[in-house]
């Protein structure tokens, strides 16, 4: 087994972090380019957001495929093949001329992008000691956020100066380099034990998790929060690209640096959770999301940035607690429970643009805020229900 703080540990962790950063940089590359797409292809705001939505949806659905498949045929080969597929589709996106082709390739790209997120932690569980896993997972999750921020900044900067197609070209070349480094640094699986692939058993496990209200409520919290949090960033780009702000794609990309505050918060969530019941921590995070959302109503760029910073604190804090809750409260098949959580997480994000569109057309950004608060109110109710459930004596929970 790979022990913590050894050379093998540092190389493997670095490889997985670089791979994760590459995946999420490609996924979120387009978010700062949405106003550019709308102008270039004569699209509505909702239509422009499909370039992000379809990739996230396909990534979420792919998690149901890659997890069980990797249990049967191995971890590293699937990660390498899917990352290579993502690189090729990114390069192909730099050559498209129609928006319909762009959407088709983004869907294919999204399916490839799901390979590493579905398998990375399982690889750690196979190859790392327990202490090493605990250390590596936190760093790996931080790399997810850093990748997303980097992709948005690259997309905004390159898109402003060289055009949106060049942004895909540059990201494709960066991704190719990161793929080569990943292959060279990540040790092959030495402790992997293949398991027969039984799709019926996988479906039975997923159905069992869906019938567990304690898991379902946490999944709804994750899906509802990400549905709003991510898509607020999409709609605010149209606000800030217009009067009176007139921000460039490069400046819009810099807005996503507010993510970094949430990354720091997530790193300390475990310590905070030791002194606060997890459902109450989720509720606190959702209240921060609501407060940050309200702050963006102040017609001032600095207030809007601070609002997204506060929302970032709340979102990542709640996400880390909810994901841990699912892992700890799954009665069996914890890997499939975590996969189901991520399916809700990414499916919620893919649906958010559509859900908020009527509010946007009704009252612009004010409408988005109203729609956001409605969804956050529902996730707040779910978290408070979990706290109530947690307060019930153990004997009374039998059959729940």
Sum this structure up briefly.
By secondary structure, this protein is an all-alpha fold. Helices cover about 80% and strands about 0% of the residues. It folds into two domains: about 1-190, Growth Hormone, Chain: A (Up-down Bundle), CATH 1.20.1250; about 200-400, MFS general substrate transporter like domains (Growth Hormone, Chain: A, Up-down Bundle).
Describe the structure.
It is a single chain. This protein has 400 residues and is mainly α. It has 2 domains: 1-192, Up-down Bundle (Growth Hormone, Chain: A); 198-400, MFS general substrate transporter like domains (Growth Hormone, Chain: A). The chain has 15 helices and no strands. It has helices at residues 7-28, 34-41, 45-73, 76-93, 99-113, 115-127, 130-162, 164-185, 199-210, 213-241, 249-255, 259-273, 278-295, 301-329, 334-391. The mean pLDDT is 89.
Core attributes:
400 residues; mainly alpha; Growth Hormone, Chain: A; 2 domains; 0% strand
* Biggest β-sheet strands, sense, barrel: none
Q: Please count the helical segments.
A: 15
Gross geometry: globular
Uncertain stretches? none
Q: Please name the CATH topology of the largest domain.
A: Growth Hormone, Chain: A
Please give the CATH architecture of the largest domain: Up-down Bundle
Class from secondary-structure proportions:
mainly alpha
Query: CATH H level of the largest domain: which superfamily?
Result: MFS general substrate transporter like domains
Task: State the distance separating the first and last CA atoms.
Answer: 38 Å
Tell me the total number of β-strands: 0
**What is the alpha-carbon Rg in Å?**
21 Å
Look at the structure and give the CATH class of the largest domain.
Answer: Mainly Alpha
Q: Give the DSSP E fraction (strand runs of 2 or more residues).
A: under 5%
Mean pLDDT: 89
Helix residue percentage: over 70%
Helix and strand pattern: HHHHHHHHHHHHHHH
């Amino acid at each position: 087994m790979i022990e913590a703080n050894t050379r093998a540990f540092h190389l493997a962790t670095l490889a997985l972090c670089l791979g994760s950063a590459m995946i999420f940089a490609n996924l979120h590359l387009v978010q700062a380019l949405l106003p550019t797409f709308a102008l270039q292809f004569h699209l509505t705001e909702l239509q422009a957001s499909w370039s992000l939505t379809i990739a996230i949806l396909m990534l979420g659905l792919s998690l149901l495929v890659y997890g069980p498949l990797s249990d049967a045929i191995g971890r590293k080969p699937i990660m390498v093949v899917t990352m290579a597929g993502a690189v090729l589709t990114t390069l192909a996106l730099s050559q498209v001329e129609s928006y319909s082709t762009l959407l088709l390739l983004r869907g294919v790209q999204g399916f490839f992008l799901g390979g590493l997120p579905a398998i990375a932690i399982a690889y750690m569980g196979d190859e790392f000691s327990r202490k090493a896993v605990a250390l590596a997972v936190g760093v790996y999750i931080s790399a997810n956020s850093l990748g997303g921020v980097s992709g948005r900044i690259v997309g905004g900067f390159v898109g402003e100066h060289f055009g949106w197609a060049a942004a895909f070209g540059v990201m494709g070349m960066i991704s190719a380099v990161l793929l080569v480094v990943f292959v060279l640094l990540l040790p092959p699986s030495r402790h992997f034990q293949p398991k027969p692939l039984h799709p019926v058993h996988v479906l039975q496990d997923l159905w069992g998790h869906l019938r567990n209200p304690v898991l379902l409520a946490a999944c709804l919290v994750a899906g509802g929060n990400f549905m709003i949090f991510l898509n607020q960033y999409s709609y605010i780009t149209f606000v800030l690209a217009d009067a009176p702000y007139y921000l460039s794609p490069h400046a819009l990309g810099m807005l996503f640096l507010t993510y970094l505050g949430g990354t720091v918060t997530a790193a300390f969530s475990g310590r905070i959770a030791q002194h606060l019941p997890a459902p109450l921590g989720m509720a606190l995070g959702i209240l921060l999301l609501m407060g940050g959302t309200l702050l963006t109503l102040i017609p001032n760029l600095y207030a809007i940035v601070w609002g997204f910073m506060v929302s970032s604190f709340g979102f990542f804090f709640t996400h880390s607690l909810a994901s841990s809750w699912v892992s700890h409260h799954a009665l069996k098949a914890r890997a499939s429970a975590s996969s189901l959580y991520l399916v809700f997480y990414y499916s919620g994000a893919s649906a958010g643009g559509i859900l908020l569109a009527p509010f946007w057309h009704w009252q612009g950004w004010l409408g988005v805020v109203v729609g956001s608060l409605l969804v956050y109110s529902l996730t707040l109710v779910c978290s408070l229900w979990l706290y109530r459930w947690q307060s019930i004596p153990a004997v009374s929970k039998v059959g729940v």
